[in-house]
Amino acid sequence: MSRRWSSPARPGLALPVAALVLILSIGVAVTIGPADLALSEVGRSVATHLGLGGALGLEPLPTLRDGMVWQLRMPRILTAAAVGAGLALCGAVMQSLTRNPLADPYLLGLSSGASLGAVLVLLAGVPLLLPVAAFVGAVGALALALSLAGALGTITPTRTVLAGLAISQLCAAAVSFVIFWSAKGDAFREVLSWLMGSVASATWTSVAIAGGAVLVLGTLLALTGSVLDAFTFGDTAAAALGVPVNRARWILLIGVALLTGALVSQSGSIGFVGLILPHAVRLFTGARHRLLLPLSALAGASFLVWADTLARTVFEPRELPVGIVTAAIGAPVFAVLLWRGNHR
Amino acid sequence: MSAGYSPSTTAATEQISSTRRRGLAAERVSWEIDGRLILDDVGVLAPAGAVTGLLGPNGSGKSTLLRTLAGVQQAGRAAPPAIGRAPDELASSGAGPSTTFDGADLGALPRRERARVLALVEQDAGTDLPLSVLDAVLLGRIPHRSLLAGDSDADRAAAHAALTAAGARELAEREVGTLSGGERQRVHMARALAQQPRLILLDEPTNHLDIAAQLHAMRVLRELAADGVTVVAALHDLNLAASTCDHLVLLDGGRVVAAGPVGEVLVPAVLEPVYGVRVDVLTHPRTGRPVLSFERG
């Protein structure tokens, strides 16, 4: 492998390009759907709602078309972007912190734990507590997975994944059970949307919760690049570089669990975004985090916007849970990564 | 044994405090893991500008001692010093464990400041991530800059200087995962040098290296010492220690059994009971340093 990992052609250019790709992806994705919209109509609707319509001399869209842009597609697509950004970021942070290339909120059970918390709170009829319950579920699942891995002996990557898998399956089974036991009628759909993930019912509230969490927690996590860099050669090396290892690890893992909880409460557990995106981005940035973290977030956002667009259009008018699409793309990519890792 | 190198005696203590000797001075260092005493009342003196070799059989506590000195030992806890000594005697001596460098208490330094004084080169530190050698070496600059800052030109200059000093300049663009053992060892050394430490602790820096790479690693250590850095290296190969080190500390079962100049530690009377082999000490015809030959005891 002779390529130069350290220096992407223009590191300064990568972030603006990724941001532009994301904005274009969002704009184009809004136009795609059962009723065709033009990109200019999307622009007009957005400008009008941001109060710029008058200043730019734009005609408002007809109510029906405007509703399609602003009430139906935009919240859903922005939620997908926020969830994708947050999951990719969480994956990158967890992979570095646990020095485990397989770490990701989905595989280690955080997402299922968050789903379980969310479903229990919905059952109890207090939807306001949804993000809090999802966070508690995520932290609980993480703590269980790590202590189970610890109980097996030294915490190795393999043990962590096995423990995470066990916790993840347990939580998923509990989610299914709770829904089957409580729900009437279309329980399958609801089970699927929590276990496979879906942003089909996203509203502007979802955008506020997922987007707000990504902006606040995501920004904080993205600033920890140097600390994560220090973990590259393990805990002892990090300590020797002046990092308070245990404190840093717990603060960051709780930040990840908080963010995962907020995202899962709005989208259910979506797999493979947190696992695949950081690996893909590392191919361009190398292993250092200053560029990897924000770039993973932007790439994850674009990825999930397109995955969700596929989910709602490929079998129109039927919709797939977006997790099926991310798994269909992610699993083969993951296999390739495994294969390449073996031949390194 | 010269008086200056006998551990935890009051004479040694007085000598340190009166002259504020430059270099590393650790006293009464004890460490236990799960109730098992790994280090028992260990004292180490390592003067500045010299290479001090840490010797001892497998499991004698060399790695634990280095990590404890570096303040990064994760498992276990500091044991109360001097097990078996009467409590009142302990109280009257008024002394707990202490690790000072150039007169400053290392344990009291904030972590980041300590990481600017002291660098640790571990055994077999690796990563699965795709990381270039230059990026790996730049990690050594983390203690020197704000956690929010990126690499400055000064950081890159320091990293390149460290690569050159470690003899790894031509590796800068390679990926760490593709390096041979000897090359990887140079990179770890360069990462430590990028911290610009005044004290460097190395855990078996010649392990798994071929003879040329071993000699190269030891030459880098000698050059560091010549620049005034305090070098402490745990070593397995007694002949390598004999040819390179200025001072030696010999550990056995977590205790210091001998310490002093090479010629005083590498003698049959000291080595034979520790390693359980027969030792003959010859003299190298050119360097005049000891050369050891071993037979089963």
- Number of continuous helical runs of chain A: 15
The spatial strand order of the largest sheet of chain B comes to: 7-8-9-3-10-11
How do the helices and strands follow one another from N- to C-terminus of chain B? HEEEHEHEEHEHHHEHEHEEHHEE
The name of the CATH architecture of the largest domain in chain B is: 3-Layer(aba) Sandwich
Judging from the principal axes of the Cα atoms, what is the shape of chain B? globular
Give the H and E element order of chain A: HHHHHHHHHHHHHHH
Main sheet: strands, sense, barrel of chain B: 6 strands, mixed
Strand content of chain A: under 5%
Low-pLDDT ranges of chain B? 1-19, 86-94
According to CATH, the homologous superfamily of the largest domain in chain B is P-loop containing nucleotide triphosphate hydrolases
Q: Mean of the pLDDT scores of chain A?
A: 88
**Topology, number of strands of chain B:** 13
Distance between the termini of chain B: 24 Å
CATH architecture of chain A: Orthogonal Bundle
Most extensive protein-chain contact, per-chain counts: A-B, 34 and 43 residues
What is the count of β-strands of chain A?
0
Q: Under CATH, the topology of chain A is which?
A: ABC transporter involved in vitamin B12 uptake, BtuC
On the 0 to 100 scale, the average pLDDT of chain B is 86
CATH fold naming of the largest domain in chain B: Rossmann fold
Please give the alpha-carbon distance between the first and last residues of chain A.
8 Å
- Rounded to an integer in angstroms, the radius of gyration calculated over CA atoms of chain B is 19 Å
Keywords (chain B): ATP-binding, Nucleotide-binding
Pfam family, one (chain B): ABC_tran
InterPro entries (chain B): AAA+_ATPase (IPR003593), ABC_transporter-like_ATP-bd (IPR003439), P-loop_NTPase (IPR027417)
Protein name (chain B): ABC transporter ATP-binding protein
